[in-house]
């Protein structure tokens, strides 16, 4: 494993070293807020100790990034493939507009998680948050799957206000005993059926394996599933002039 | 169904002496205006469907057709025009926001027509471009603060930030695949390559067939991030971050699911039938610092090899906004005036939001000069450029180059009927219907675009030569070459020009 000490290093230099590294396994130590780590990278496996800055793994096109610590904003912005695993928490707009791959956050995530997430054919993105998220979760969600577990929330709603605003594709799963009261009119929400749960069973296995969590713990609370009731939410908004 | 209060806007006049009922008009009209009546053996028209695109007129073999403005009128009223009344009826019937296409058609001032160009007489003789060298080449991108020399004293050029090289200071502006057809994109791409300039993908991704035109392609990244991935970013010669668009400043885009079919779906990388919604803001941008972050994330992803353009709509505080962008790490700022076209925009936004590009461009160029950051960025002006004189005036006001959109579509056969939003463009431009798209012949369309820009290039050289100027570099920001006519002091001050006679 190729080791890079990020202590005091400017982001451009750090990212250049990651880009040109011959070894596909790279350990970045003493990370202290450097942005764009792994931007557009594919086929590399980064292990990051410390706190990577904004836009971690933006345009990521394969490979893996694991953070032993917290991540900041826009983790996985517009990512296409690969995996980002954060052992701590992540900031706002995690998974902004991601189209493929997966993001696992063990702790909490900020506002606007999964905003404008989309899916296309074999690209089916996935975000799983072990803790809670802020407001506007899955805003404009157009595809893929967002799962918020609230593992330490005691069954309480694990998301902030106004989730799913503008949602017009994909699915969202919330592990809690009641639904948020402020879901918009263009989504439908219900207790997850056995069929719904079967769809995410593999995702939950993967998440549990990644962080060493017992699956029985995850399944000890009920899940709700939220989906759009139309893929054309604004069709009747206009009249031709 | 109640009474439809709306009166047809146009009248189809068919000369019965000339009409041979060949039914060409019927086959050509996607709006289904024309029909054949087998009982009488004559053609009929349903004018309520006519958008005045002139397809039938152009193809009628006997010139039997003309489309005229319907003379029918409500009671004449200076306050309540027929248009104002008709719009009320439309909204009362549907409850919808009015949706329009192409640029703002209202009679606001056109400042291009209130500025006149200079020419040399006696002193500083004019230059004959047919005889003497005349440089229309220009480079877009951040320029260095000072000259560096290598150990042998030669000026270094290997340390420049990435530049776009244009043989002529005209680029084709962003029009997405989805808003316009495959054939229209092919024409723009091929013409850009032949002309040594660039076309712009818009926010709909880049069709796999057009990756080969990458060196002449600007790829756009908008809030919806449609079709944006590593390969796309690497395909283009430059990356444009779309913040705003002159036709609809401050609001997002919305390509209806009905248009997300086949290749459009594949290129945007979203499912067929799903609406393509571009939110109004980029949700990761709340400040210039955030913009800088997106600029640098794109530079990181493409290893600092490509210039990044930030496109904004011309709005009230455009100079201050541009000043921020010039400090964000962006290489080029594109400013889009309130006349710029669109495939669809709410009528009220299109017709009432934004400011004229002439004033915006002058204000931005002045501000960047005052703050001594003009060399940080190049400026592209767009949204209303109609001819080569507009191009010359824009460059004299401070632009490095111009974007043309509407003019390029007109070259392809667009007749400005302003109904792109229906997706039934009879000229094969703003449609995805295969039977309509094939009407636009890519070979002919490419040639017409090359003709247009080549003609403009000659005219630009003539005008520059007349002013005794032999390069775009010497014309840029050269406001002494402009004089205003019929402008007030405030307008002249903003434009930074003198009145004619001064």
Topology:
The complex is a heterodimer of chains A (241) and B (502).
Chain A: E1 2-5, H1 11-20, E2 25-32, E3 45-51, E4 61-68, E5 81-86, E6 102-105, E7 126-129, E8 142-148, E9 169-175, E10 187-191, H2 194-211, H3 215-218, E11 223-228, E12 238-240
Chain B: E1 10-14, H1 24-28, E2 34-37, E3 42-45, H2 55-59, E4 65-69, H3 82-94, E5 97-100, E6 115-117, E7 138-140, E8 164-166, E9 170-172, H4 182-195, E10 199-200, E11 217-221, H5 230-235, E12 238-242, E13 253-255, H6 262-268, E14 276-278, H7 288-301, E15 308-313, H8 318-326, E16 332-336, E17 345-346, H9 347-352, H10 357-370, E18 378-382, H11 388-397, E19 401-404, H12 406-411, H13 434-437, H14 442-466, H15 472-475, E20 482-484, H16 489-495, E21 498-499
Helix pairs in contact in B: 4-14, 8-10, 11-14
Short description:
The complex is a heterodimer of chains A (241) and B (502). Chain A has 241 residues and is an alpha/beta fold. Chain A has 3 helices and 12 strands.
* Separation of the first and last Cα atoms of chain A: 63 Å
By CATH, the topology of the largest domain in chain B is TIM Barrel
Estimate what percentage of residues of chain B fall within beta strands. Answer: 15-25%
User: Could you name the CATH class of chain A?
Assistant: Mainly Beta
Question: What about the largest sheet of chain B?
Answer: 8 strands, parallel
Tell me, what's the shape of chain A? Answer: globular
CATH architectural designation of chain A: 3 Solenoid
Q: State the secondary-structure class of chain B.
A: alpha/beta
- Count of DSSP E strands of chain A? 12
Assigned CATH superfamily of chain A: Glutamate synthase, alpha subunit, C-terminal domain
Query: What is the H level of CATH, i.e. the homologous superfamily of the largest domain in chain B?
Result: Aldolase class I
């Amino acid at each position: 494993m190729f080791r890079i000490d990020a202590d005091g290093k400017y982001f451009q230099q750090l990212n250049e070293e990651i880009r040109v590294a011959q070894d596909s396994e790279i350990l970045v130590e003493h990370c202290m807020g450097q942005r764009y780590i792994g931007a557009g990278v594919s086929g590399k496996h980064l292990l990051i100790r410390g706190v990577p800055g904004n836009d971690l793994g933006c345009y990521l096109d394969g490979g893996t990034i694991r953070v032993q610590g917290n991540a900041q904003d826009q983790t996985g912005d517009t990512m296409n493939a690969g995996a980002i695993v954060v052992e701590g928490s992540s900031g706002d707009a995690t998974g902004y507009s991601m189209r493929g791959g997966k993001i696992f956050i063990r702790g909490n995530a900020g506002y606007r998680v999964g905003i404008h997430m989309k899916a296309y054919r074999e690209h089916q993105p996935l975000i799983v948050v072990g803790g809670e998220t802020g407001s506007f979760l899955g805003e404009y969600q157009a595809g893929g799957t967002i799962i918020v577990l609230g593992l330490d929330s005691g069954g309480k709603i694990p998301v902030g206000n106004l989730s799913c605003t503008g949602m017009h594709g994909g699915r969202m799963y919330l592990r809690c005993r009641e639904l948020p009261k402020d879901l918009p009119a263009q989504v439908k929400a219900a207790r997850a059926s056995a069929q719904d749960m079967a769809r995410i069973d593999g995702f939950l296995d993967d998440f549990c394996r990644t962080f060493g969590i017992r699956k029985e713990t995850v399944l000890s609370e009920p899940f709700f599933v939220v989906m759009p009731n139309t893929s054309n939410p604004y069709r009747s908004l206009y009249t031709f002039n | 169904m109640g009474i439809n209060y709306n009166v047809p806007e146009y009248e189809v006049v068919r000369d019965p002496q000339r009409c041979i009922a060949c039914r060409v008009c019927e086959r050509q009209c996607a709006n289904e205006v024309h029909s054949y009546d087998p009982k009488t053996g004559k053609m009929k028209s349903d004018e309520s469907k006519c958008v005045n695109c002139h397809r039938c007129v152009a193809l009628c073999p006997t010139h039997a057709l003309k489309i005229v403005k319907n003379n029918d009128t409500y009671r004449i009223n200076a306050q309540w025009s027929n248009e104002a009344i008709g719009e009320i009826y439309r909204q009362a019937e549907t409850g919808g926001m009015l949706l329009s296409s192409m640029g703002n058609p209202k009679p606001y001032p056109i400042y291009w027509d209130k500025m006149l160009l200079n020419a040399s007489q006696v002193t500083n003789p004019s230059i004959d471009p047919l005889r003497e060298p005349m440089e229309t080449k220009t480079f877009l991108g951040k320029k260095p603060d000072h000259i560096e020399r290598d150990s042998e004293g030669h000026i270094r050029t290997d340390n420049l930030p990435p530049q776009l090289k244009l043989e002529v200071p005209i680029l084709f502006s962003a029009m997405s695949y989805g808003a316009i057809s495959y054939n229209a994109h092919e024409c723009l791409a091929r013409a850009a390559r032949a002309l040594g300039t660039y076309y712009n993908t818009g926010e709909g991704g880049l069709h796999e067939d057009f990756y080969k035109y990458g060196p002449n392609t600007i790829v756009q990244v908008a809030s919806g991030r449609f079709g944006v991935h590593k390969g796309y970013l690497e395909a283009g010669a430059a990356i444009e971050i779309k913040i705003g668009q002159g036709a609809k400043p401050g609001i997002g885009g919305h390509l209806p699911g009905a248009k997300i079919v086949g290749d459009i779906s594949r290129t945007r990388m979203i499912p067929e039938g799903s609406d393509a919604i571009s939110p109004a803001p980029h949700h990761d941008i709340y400040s210039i610092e955030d913009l800088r972050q997106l600029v640098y994330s794109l530079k990181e992803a493409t290893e600092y090899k490509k210039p990044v353009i930030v496109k904004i709509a011309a709005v009230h505080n455009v100079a201050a906004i541009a000043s921020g962008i010039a400090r964000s790490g962006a290489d080029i700022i594109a400013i889009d005036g309130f006349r710029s076209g669109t495939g669809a925009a709410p009528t009220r936004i299109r017709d009432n939001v934004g400011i004229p590009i002439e004033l915006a461009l002058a204000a931005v160029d002045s501000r960047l000069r005052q703050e001594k950051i003009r060399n940080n960025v190049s400026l592209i002006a767009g949204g209303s450029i109609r001819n080569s004189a507009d191009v010359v005036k824009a460059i004299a006001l401070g632009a490095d180059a111009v974007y043309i959109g509407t003019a390029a579509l007109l070259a392809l056969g667009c007749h400005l009927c302003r109904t792109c939003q229906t997706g039934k463009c009879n000229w094969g431009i703003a449609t995805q219907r295969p039977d309509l798209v094939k009407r636009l012949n890519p070979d002919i369309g490419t040639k017409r675009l090359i003709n247009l820009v080549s003609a403009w290039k000659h005219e630009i050289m003539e005008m520059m030569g007349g002013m005794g100027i032999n390069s775009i570099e010497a014309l840029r920001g050269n406001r002494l070459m402009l004089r205003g006519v019929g402008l007030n002091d405030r307008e002249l001050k903003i434009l930074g020009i003198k009145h004619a006679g001064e």
